Write a sequence for this structure.
């Protein structure tokens, strides 16, 4: 089976060695290592993807707990095959802020079985969409203060506590810090961007495309990969065309109400159904990986 | 009615004055003037859009012939309202090179009445698609030499001789020189670009989008506007999405066989049906122009 | 001599004709016309560059005053040859906000005769640099409210009232509205951008170049041209290189204290000395224009 | 001391484990691992940077030879500290094609002691600059066929055979394949690009900047890093400014004859003098690395 180990620490000394030792002692093969020294932020990070016998997964997890205790590193072990092994649905944390369309679409798709996952929690930096979570009987957890500033550590703590498999950013309006991205690296954070990547990466992609007088618009569902601009991690892209003379309001309305929800639901489905995987920072069709 | 006058000459002296004089003497109002001094190519150009009484259109044309004779400038007079006034369909010159899909789609749409125009001529710098023209009974005119180098002046001469209203570039593989663009300026040259503008303007837009691992592709039908990158002159954009793992060949096949033809046919229809106009280098819905 | 006429009005009807009539009646030749319909802002604009006998310049100015009265259009007449004809130095309005380095450099260069112009007024949306103006005995005019919001019409009124030839934006931190750009179109508004154009057009060019780990930085002095991104209107560019490991603070310090002032002073000098002109939206060496 | 191990193989199985085992058995600490699966080219690659006792370097080299024999992987061991340890100058391979200015400048700087390295060999895919090598008494090796197509494996074989420390691409006109870049990864391949990166990455940076009517030009000396566009690996950038109206020929002449040679010589000097290092794909000042 495939397993993913992430480690985050304050410097780049002594990070790789204990993890690499443990992994090889368990007879696992290293398939991929990504390391990064974000020295300006004092975040040193590593993501290791390995192949090991399913019977050794528990040992791996225990070993990593030990390494974490000994070194003080923040370490996580996970596998995309866990839900199947544990005979359960993948657990999703749905992160939201103001716009209700995409979280509603994901919650409905889960309820109707189109996304074969569990809506374990709705996280938000604002109270606005608490009612949406309650409507579907999903616990709501506020991670923002009165000004909407999120407690990024609280987000990770909640996901850890609830054994979340995938974090879904459904028009969540804050940027995850690099440390959070690394902690859930390896294809576990799914974002919905309301423009076509890589052409329109900004905060206002509808406005930018409209300013270019484009007649085609789109949304992009992609994995968040730390330290990289999202160019190669696209899971799904949905598009629509409008007539000349269409107002920006109408463009945005069609995008937010129809296109974005469809884009995110299909993207989450592909991930939850294990149709796609992250492989050296690129999305690949799962069946194509050796 | 609206009329468009284009003038091209070897320098910028004495170009504007005689045209402006004639226009104002006829009681017309100047709605738009675009001038450009492409000094490195010794091409000086002007496009004038005016409003005048339909009864004076013939006088305008005669006056411009006189100005042309006196000054040696290359001058053309035209109106998008001409076909209606002359109780005829708009005349189209379809320019092609190798790919048959988009010209075939336009010829079929004309035959079936979906594009209410006349396929007056098929122009090409290569003989390859001569059979496509013959299949629809449309005259074929070769404007290229043995190496496929086009005679750009011959293209314009043929369009002049046949009183062409619109030049349709259906995957025509050569760049029109600035002088040709100016001679048929004012919204008369329609191009099909096989990528989404303005994001993918290059010669190989499928390859470039694929290299970015995009999952959405598109085509753009736009007016050619001299001296400007095509950013604001979009008439129609069509898109399609593919699954992760789709091969480039399959992406290109779907684009060339399905998406590009649909994009161009709808774009030409919008122009021929006077649904869109070029207004200060931007496409506007015709009903929105005062 | 060359003269420039600018006209701004609320719609595109009836703008061009009266100006064109007057110009041709005076025996002038039209060298360039730029028109633009910024319909979304209800600003219709025209810039006309003409050649006429110096003896007729006063008549032209009077005629334009008449047209303005009759039509309600906002019309201005100007010539880069005026200071010479009137045996005076070009009058400069120096627009500033917070940073003192570039205005100080321009004021010193004027005092020392390196820029052969007159510092007629210092305009600002903030009071901060009032002392700089006073230090050089130049009148200071505040055009901002308590929040620093500028009164754009007041800026133009002051420039009109003082017969300003050139408006110098010396790290003036507000964007001029399109109407102001048109009113002083034709190569009269000189801006200092603190990054290399066209590569770094944003608000924080030092930060953006630094984020790319560049080791070369620069500033750009350019004419402001309405409706166009500043790509072709570069008057002067100055650059400097730094060693690997140089801090952003040090990069910015060298740029602001040394490079930007040098760049702007030389740029203003080239304009004031008539070494460069704006010709069809591009800067050309003055001697190269026919 | 710091050591760099690179490994290239045909797939991603079994690549990392034997190297990681050997390294940790030698008591070395892993400082950085970069892995990449260029699956479309069947090139799997790894670069490992480690810290180990200088006394163990010979053991490391032997161990890697053994791993290479057992696994069939192409493995190289190197250290930027080797020349000092072996009491010799760094050995440079200077790769050239047509333009003589930059190789001449490097050869002169080596002769004059400004670059404290040894010009071990001049490599070229063309014979044109053979005389330049001979003039400085440096062996010349042709790696191109009659059409100038380079034998990329021959280039690597020669560098291996001559124990080259640094490969200097002095306007070498061919793109190194990914496998070559990986084999000499870790800050050993120095390129001179004749434009400012990242703004002008193309084949004709002078022409592109000139088409934007820029008045500042530059060159960039940078490490080649496989799989990444060169954005963060800049070692040196040199710039110059020109007056409006300067011809493209003059711009290119000043760049090729003065600016590019200065840029490359100073860049090579910084590397050879160990002033800069590559650290997680970014250039850092050597003293700043912990």
């Amino acid at each position: 089976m495939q397993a993913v180990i992430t480690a985050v620490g304050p410097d780049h000394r002594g990070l790789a060695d204990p993890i690499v030792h443990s992994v090889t002692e368990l007879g696992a093969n290293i398939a991929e290592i990504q390391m990064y020294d974000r020295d300006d932020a004092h975040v040193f990070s590593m993501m290791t993807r390995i192949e090991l016998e399913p019977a050794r997964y528990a040992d791996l997890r225990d070993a990593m707990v030990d390494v974490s205790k000994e070194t003080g590193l923040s370490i996580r072990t996970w596998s995309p095959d866990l839900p199947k092994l544990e005979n359960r649905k993948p657990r999703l944390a749905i992160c939201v802020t103001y716009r209700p369309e995409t979280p509603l679409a994901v919650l409905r798709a889960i309820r109707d079985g189109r996304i074969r996952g569990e809506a374990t929690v709705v996280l938000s930096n604002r109270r606005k969409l608490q009612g949406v979570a309650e409507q579907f009987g999903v616990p709501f957890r506020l991670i923002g203060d009165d000004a909407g500033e999120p407690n990024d550590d609280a987000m990770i703590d909640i996901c850890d506590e609830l054994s979340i498999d995938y974090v879904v950013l459904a028009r969540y309006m804050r940027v995850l810090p690099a440390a959070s991205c690394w902690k859930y690296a390896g294809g576990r954070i799914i974002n919905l961007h309301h423009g076509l990547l890589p052409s329109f990466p900004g905060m206002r992609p509808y406005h930018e495309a409209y300013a270019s007088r484009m007649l085609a618009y789109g949304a992009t569902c992609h994995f968040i990969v730390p330290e990289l601009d999202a160019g190669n991690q696209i899971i799904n892209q949905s598009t629509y065309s409008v007539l000349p003379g269409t107002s920006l309001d109408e463009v945005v309305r069609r995008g937010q109400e129809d296109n974005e929800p469809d884009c995110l639901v299909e993207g989450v489905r592909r991930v939850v159904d294990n149709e796609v995987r992250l492989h050296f920072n690129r999305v690949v069709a799962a069946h194509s990986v050796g």
